[in-house]
Amino acid sequence: MPKITVAGSSFDRAADESVLDALLRHGVAVPNSCRKGACQSCMMRAMDGYVPAEAQAGLKETFVHEGYFLACQCRPDGDLTLASPDNNAAFQPATVVFTEALGETVHRVVLSPETPLHYHAGQFINLRRPDGLIRSYSLASLPGTIPELEIHVKRLPGGAVSTWLCDTIKAGDPVEVSAPAGTCFYLPTREPQNMLLIGTGTGLAPLFSIARDALHAGHQGGIHLYHGSRSRDGLYRHHPLRDLHAAHDNFHYHPCVSGRDVPDDCIPGRADAVALHEFGNLAGWRVYLCGLPAMVHAARTQAYLKGASLADIHADAFELAGRDENRGAADEAATG
Amino acid sequence: MDTSVYDEIGGAVAVDAAVDIFYRKVLTDSSISHFFDSVDMDDQAAKQKAFLTMAFGGPNEYTGKDMRAAHAGLVSRGLNDSHFDAVCGHLKSTLEELGVPESLLTTILGVAESVRDDVLNR
Ligand SMILES: Cc1cc2nc3c(=O)[nH]c(=O)nc-3n(C[C@H](O)[C@H](O)[C@H](O)COP(=O)(O)OP(=O)(O)OC[C@H]3O[C@@H](n4cnc5c(N)ncnc54)[C@H](O)[C@@H]3O)c2cc1C
Ligand code: HEM
């Protein structure tokens, strides 16, 4: 049976068990959240042994070189020796500046971190509640302008952290935030590349940042943002985005409503279906997909088959934390 | 393995470009696309990369035994010579699109051909 050694103690691991599951089973406290390789909160460092490449997918090059990997995605053939999980290094204190309801289910939460974060538009942070629960939230703020961080939180019925962020916290409350993470981000290009941005629910948050950052950087080429929700109420940035559309020739906002009662200024249908139907050939396009995991995965294949190259498709699936059963139902609730 | 083909073609960068073209051909070919349905695209792209790196004679850790194991499930789902030929056909047209010279093309297709029996578990 393969072994894992941490801080001088060795633990057995079943062949198909992830390093995270094995350590948790043995009572080793490892921070974690989505367990799908997305949130990076279970990042650990190998001191000895072979880490399979899939456990390092999506990590920054420097982290890869230093032997960091995602414990939830790591099923090595042999033994591993790990540095102790350091619960505090990656987090810093932040204060809630204010919260604001954007419609019935989405809240905008603005946080002030003790030390300003350097992040790319589209990245996310892990937020840690005083009781230790960790959840990921994408940054909707414009990087490099103000030190405050803005996140958009969708209230999920029965969701621990989202209901707390939407209903309980108030200005002045302490939280903790991680360093920015994720590879679904915008970098300026000199070529006039067209961009297709598709987001469902709070999947808009990173796209709201990317679109404004691109305009701010003088992006040449069209920027097409499709925001989808089941109802008009879920299009929680309708007016600011319409204003942005009016102000920039190359920015196009396409609000999509997949349920009934579609207002005149919205497009009926699912955002990904509407968007991918609109464009015949995506060769040379940069594509960003955020929100509902099922949408993200399906749209990714479609965008690729329509000619976008794999390297130009950036995706953030908002995987819910540790809910393997009833995943479908929870996903629906999460982003619909 | 002959690593010079891999280097001559342009190494990892060339493999990335080839994966993009090759995988799209495979996924849109209805005679073989069903073999790829159940696999996540990220994983699959990584595996396509492994496939091409191997065909180009680049650094890889696969043995004949691994090739057998990787495709055993597919063989039980009906993978046969016709599917193998289709994949080799997509490999060939991908290389042609990328302007790979004839001599290299022959070498690469030869590498692919050499694993036929392992892939088909014979
Ligand atoms: C990279 C990334 C970025 C993200 N960005 C954002 C963002 O910008 N905005 C955003 O709103 N979210 C985002 N998320 C999702 C976010 O991290 C949380 O998962 C989400 O807020 C739910 O957390 P929670 O604690 O409220 O819900 P949890 O308590 O984790 O519950 C999740 C869901 O499961 C249901 N549930 C609870 N218990 C059970 C059970 N026993 N069986 C079945 N279902 C159950 C709950 O009702 C709820 O609907 C992101 C996720 C990732 C991975
Ligand atoms: C030239 C011949 C071939 C070579 C060199 C080759 C190479 C590979 C390699 C290296 C992998 C990854 C193994 C791993 O790391 O898990 C793989 C997986 C795979 N191959 Fe092939 N392959 C060949 C032919 C084919 C054919 C003809 C098909 C089907 C039409 C096919 C379908 C697949 C699938 C679906 C997987 C993923 C299996 C899984 O993840 O379960 N391959 N192949």
What are the key terms here?
heterodimer, A: 336 residues, alpha/beta, Ubiquitin-like (UB roll), Elongation Factor Tu (Ef-tu), domain 3, Rossmann fold, 3 domains, six-stranded antiparallel beta sheet, six-stranded parallel beta sheet, 8 helices, 22% helix, globular, disordered C terminus, B: 122 residues, mainly alpha, Globin-like, binds flavin-adenine dinucleotide, binds protoporphyrin IX containing FE
CATH topology heading of the largest domain in chain A: Rossmann fold
H and E order of chain B: HHHHHHH
CATH architecture annotation of chain B: Orthogonal Bundle
Oligomeric state: heterodimer
Largest interface: A-B, 12 and 13 residues
Question: What coarse outline of chain A follows from CA principal-axis ratios?
Answer: globular
Helix count of chain A, per DSSP? 8
CATH class categorisation of the largest domain in chain A: Alpha Beta
The main sheet of chain A comes to: 6 strands, antiparallel
Query: What is the first-to-last residue Cα distance of chain B?
Result: 22 Å
**Which topology of chain B does CATH recognise?**
Globin-like
User: Structural class given helices, strands, pairing of chain A?
Assistant: alpha/beta
* Spatial separation of the terminal alpha carbons of chain A: 43 Å
Helical fraction of chain B equals over 70%
Contiguous runs where pLDDT drops below 50 for at least 5 residues of chain A: 324-336
Mean pLDDT of chain A: 90
Largest sheet of chain B: none
Order of helices and strands of chain A: EEHEHEEEEEEEHEEHEHEEHEHEH
